[in-house]
């Protein structure tokens, strides 16, 4: 059984492995609720025209959230805030937060107003394949409701960045739970009060954004940062953050632009293609959030601290720790998604309006995505090494190269493989991104691998083979007709398969001599 040390060893230090365990637990709760939410939504709306319209409408503010809130902004803001915390007075740090809040609110209000007013143009540009009047008009109406979410969630992420920099990781990690609760409540109880019914999901998004922001404010108050935002165009630190954000926006946009282009391609394919890719992407978000986002959240402020202190040895050692832990957890997740793809889709989504055909098509997309899962997570760790050094240009250039490669793969694969080709192109482009980032970290001498990597990867490889073989054998000896079972039966069998996979993987690692203590790491708070 895994035994983690106390979260905080004393008032000045923290055990990163224990912090990650707690943060991942919060994220796991959010993802589980997210799957319940998707199961409820799939049960109520299926994968038809109305759901396609909602996916298109929600994808754009979600895209902007990832670019501004969780991408470009946090990459530029957190290193500067960490520097201020270490080298400036509390008053100067508080002033920085007020000025950044003022600038962020100003920009987001303008973006939100443009999005609401120009909704028809936005839908036409991002999903021109929705050319029938019903789906197009519905997507426009939904976009006008959900677009203010970008304002709410960006401010929520801004607050979360402050809390993370001050080692308050659990609170921001819990906030996505509130959005999922909002979805579930609206889908289960409030759908009859909306016409058309799909509009309930639009208002669920808006309500969730309000809850996410409001929940974090008491903790911001405790840190002394809950002050009125101030707009100051002359603040040098704010201008420095804005300058850093420009290339960072371009870099963060690359992956999101790929999603938009995939949506455009998918909107010209068979009805349901947009939804199939959406549900597959949602399954990919479980390991991405539980492992990738959690690790990146911990690494960026701590790497920024080492960069500010010019502690290159500790900087490289922390990156090495993050990469080892990432591969230990993400590789079995990728294999698990590939081998247990259809059981996962069937258990979570295959009810009522969501047919066996929908489940099979979603499974195919998931299988293609899983090829690139490690490469989709690794850049979150690798790019943190550049962002902590306040270098956003290098990962931006690499992201643009990756985007170009992804679109080339799209053009090659979509004609024969349809939506599966789009997913596979995304996976291949992710590998280009990850390998180039790793190469540049080595070339710039920001990262030097510590001894023992070959033995480490060999152990993981053997454990993966044992796990995959065991899962295939179990499914062969105990074939399951997933469509004929009730939901709780499916969940029970799936849980048994997942438990078997976890047992085989970690038992094999243990037999090969690996121990949890190898990944213990202590950092200053």
List its salient traits.
cell inner membrane; membrane; 80% helix; single chain; globular; disordered N terminus; mainly alpha; Lipid_II_flippase_MurJ/MviN; 525 residues; 19 helices; two-stranded antiparallel ribbon; 2 strands; 2 domains
Structure notes:
This protein has helices spanning about 15-45, 50-85, 90-115, 120-125, 135-145, 150-165, 170-175, 175-190, 200-225, 235-265, 275-310, 310-340, 340-350, 355-370, 375-390, 395-415, 420-445, 455-475, 485-510; strands spanning about 15, 520-525. By secondary structure, the chain is mostly helical. About 80% of the residues lie in helices and about 0% in strands. The protein contains 19 helices and two strands. The protein folds into two domains: about 15-265, no CATH class; about 270-455, no CATH class. It is globular and about 65 Å long. Strands 1-2 form a two-stranded antiparallel sheet. Helix 1 packs parallel to helix 8 (about 175-190). The longest helix is centred in the first third of the chain and has 39 residues, at about 50-85.
Brief overview:
The protein is mainly alpha-helical and 525 residues long. It has 19 helices and 2 strands. The chain folds into 2 domains: 15-263, no CATH class; 269-456, no CATH class.
Count, helices: 19
Distance from N terminus to C terminus (CA atoms, Å) equals 27 Å
Q: Which structural class do you get from the secondary structure elements?
A: mainly alpha
Share of residues in strands: under 5%
Number of domains: 2
User: Which outline best applies?
Assistant: globular
Largest sheet properties: 2 strands, antiparallel
Q: Rounded to an integer, what's the Rg over CA atoms?
A: 23 Å
Q: What is the number of beta strands?
A: 2
Low-confidence stretches: 1-11
Helix content: over 70%
Widest β-sheet, arrangement of strands: 1-2
Mean pLDDT: 84
Order of helices and strands: EHHHHHHHHHHHHHHHHHHHE
């Amino acid at each position: 059984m895994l035994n983690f040390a106390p979260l905080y060893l004393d008032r000045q230090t923290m055990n990163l492995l224990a912090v990650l365990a707690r943060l991942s637990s919060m994220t796991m709760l959010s993802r589980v609720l997210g799957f319940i939410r998707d199961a409820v939504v799939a049960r109520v709306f299926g994968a038809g025209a109305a759901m396609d319209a909602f996916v298109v409408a929600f994808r754009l503010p979600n895209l902007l959230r990832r670019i501004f809130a969780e991408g470009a902004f946090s990459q530029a803001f957190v290193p500067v805030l960490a520097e201020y915390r270490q080298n400036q007075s509390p008053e100067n740090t508080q002033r920085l937060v007020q000025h950044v809040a003022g600038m962020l609110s100003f920009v987001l209000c303008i973006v939100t107003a443009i999005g609401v007013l120009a909704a028809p143009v936005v839908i036409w540009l991002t999903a021109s394949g929705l050319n029938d009047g019903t789906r197009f008009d519905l997507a426009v109406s939904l976009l006008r409701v959900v677009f203010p979410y970008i304002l709410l969630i960006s401010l929520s992420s801004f607050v979360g960045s402050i809390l993370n920099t001050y080692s308050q990781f659990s609170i921001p990690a819990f906030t996505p739970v509130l959005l999922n609760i909002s979805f579930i409540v609206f889908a289960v109880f409030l759908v009859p009060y909306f016409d058309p019914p799909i509009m309930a999901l639009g208002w669920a998004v808006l309500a969730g954004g309000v809850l996410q922001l409001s929940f974090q404010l008491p903790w911001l108050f405790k840190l002394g940062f809950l002050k009125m935002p101030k707009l100051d165009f002359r603040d040098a630190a704010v201008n420095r953050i804005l300058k850093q954000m420009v290339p960072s926006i371009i870099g963060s946009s690359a992956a999101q632009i790929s999603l938009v282009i995939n949506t455009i391609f998918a909107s010209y394919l068979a009805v349901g293609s947009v939804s199939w890719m959406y549900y597959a992407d949602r399954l990919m978000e479980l390991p991405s959030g539980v492992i990738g986002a959690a690790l990146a959240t911990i690494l960026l402020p701590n790497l920024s601290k080492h960069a500010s202190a010019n502690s290159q040895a500790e900087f490289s050692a922390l990156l090495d720790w993050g990469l080892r832990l990432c591969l230990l957890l993400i590789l079995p997740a990728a294999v698990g998604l590939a081998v247990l793809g259809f059981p996962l889709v069937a258990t979570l989504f295959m009810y009522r309006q969501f047919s066996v055909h929908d489940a099979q098509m979603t499974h195919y997309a998931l299988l293609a995505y899983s090829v690139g899962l490690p490469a989709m997570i690794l850049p979150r760790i690798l790019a943190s090494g550049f962002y902590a050094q306040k270098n956003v240009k290098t990962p931006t250039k690499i992201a643009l190269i990756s985007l170009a490669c992804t679109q080339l793969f799209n053009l090659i694969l979509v004609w024969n493989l349809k939506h599966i080709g789009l997913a596979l192109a995304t996976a291949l482009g992710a590998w280009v991104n990850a390998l180039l980032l790793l190469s540049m970290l080595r070339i710039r001498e920001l990262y030097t691998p510590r001894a023992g990597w070959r033995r480490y990867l060999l152990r993981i490889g053997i454990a993966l083979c044992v796990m995959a073989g065991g899962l295939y054998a179990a499914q062969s000896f105990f074939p399951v007709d997933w469509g004929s079972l009730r939901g709780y039966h499916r969940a029970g069998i799936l849980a048994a398969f997942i438990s078997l996979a976890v047992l085989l993987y970690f038992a094999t690692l243990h037999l090969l001599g690996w121990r949890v203590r190898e990944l213990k790491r202590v950092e200053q708070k």
